[in-house]
Amino acid sequence: MELILSTLINGLSLGGIYAMIALGYTMVYGIAKMLNFAHGDIIMVGGYIIYVFMAFNNPIFAILMAVVFCVILGVIIEKVAYKPLRGASPLAVLITAIGVSYLLQSLAQIIFGSANKMVMVYDFGAVTFLGANVQVSALVTLGVAFAVMTALTMFVKCTRTGRAMIAVSEDKGAAQLMGIDVNKIITITFAIGSALAALAGLFYLFKAPSISSTLGAMPGIKAFTAAVIGGIGSIPGAMLGGLLLGIVECISYKITAIAPYTDAIEFSILIIILLVRPTGFLGKKRREKV
């Protein structure tokens, strides 16, 4: 029983990390109608910023600097790489996103080298929860993930900027005619997504205190998988998909016979769900205007 509870909590906390990354994917796609495959590498950048500023032995300062730097980087990427392609084909935007991803990885390798860097942010220790030994960092991760999703949902539904985001996601042309600055809304969306990626990088370091230039590659792909499973464009869907994927991953790693095939199992779930429900669990069908 203790093992099951511990695995479940670890799965939920890992799913919370995937959910925070997936929120960035789903917001950018929902509003800008593009897949930012460089989003995963923002996690890596945030991790390296934490590594650099941990030299001051102040974790809070390091985390704040990571969030600020990632927000600035996300806005710069949007302005330089994606804004000029606003009316271009989806393929051109996709190729550009992949190019930005490799550029960030290469710059990180040039600056910090190819060897892994150890980053010990803070050790919360462990507690006994319902008879199971659980890392406090897992509980913190899960709590922050739910708090972020709740805050983001309230922001979108209850603020002027959030309602503008909904308008842009529904009909960009009509929103522009109503006086909404579409470019500004897309920039804000990239800033929020990049801040969430920086937080995800922090919580990922709690689980594995080691960073390399490819840190964000696999978490980014899995978070995108989570966003699609939950319904890309849906904030609750990103959370649901992330938690589901995290639980499946932790359970698979605990079963010796299938542990080597964990990634294959996760992506197989994506294929099955897309065959049964192409829009994901909470996604909605959109009518294309011609």
Care to describe what's here?
The protein is built from 11 helices and 4 strands. The chain is mainly α. Helix 2 packs across helix 8 (182-207), helix 5 crosses helix 6 and helix 9 packs across helix 10. The chain has a single domain (2-276), classed as ABC transporter involved in vitamin B12 uptake, BtuC (Orthogonal Bundle), CATH 1.10.3470. The protein is globular. Strands 1-4 form a two-stranded antiparallel sheet. A hairpin with a 2-residue loop joins strand 2 and strand 3 (132-135).
User: Do you know the CATH architecture?
Assistant: Orthogonal Bundle
Total strand count, please?
Answer: 4
Helix content: over 70%
Measure the end-to-end span. Answer: 56 Å
Any idea what the radius of gyration is? 19 Å
Tally of individual domains = 1
Residue ranges: pLDDT <50 for 5 or more in a row?
Answer: none
Shape: globular
Strand percentage: under 5%
Just give the CATH class.
Answer: Mainly Alpha
How would you summarize the topology of this molecule?
Layout: H1 2-32, H2 39-53, H3 59-82, H4 90-112, E1 117-118, E2 126-129, E3 132-135, H5 136-158, H6 160-170, H7 172-177, H8 182-207, E4 210-211, H9 217-230, H10 235-254, H11 262-276
